[in-house]
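Suppose a colleague, Dr. K., hands you the sequence of a protein chain of 91 amino acids and asks what its three-dimensional shape might be. Before reaching for any lab equipment, you can write down a predicted structure in token form. Begin with the sequence itself:
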Amino acid sequence: MFPNERNEWTQPSKTTRWLDYILDKYNLNKITTHGFRHTHCSMCFESGMGMEEVQDRLGHKDIKTTMNIYVHISKKRKKQGVHRVVEFMNY
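The predicted structure, expressed as tokens, is then:
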């Protein structure tokens, strides 16, 4: 949600154009404005925030929505998980 100069809601297509301009200008990977919501959710989770906190932050009524749709596990987090299991098994 982005307000304009008159504190009214900006049309979603306008933010898409802004984002596309920046991505093209700096040769960045494609992401949508909604994609930032998924990224923010995953970063909150990876920072140690509890799932209920992340659910509340995103305004989801059902925690399954947060867990099954919005949280994406990074390669770094997967690798850390493997190391924890190895340490647990005393290898």
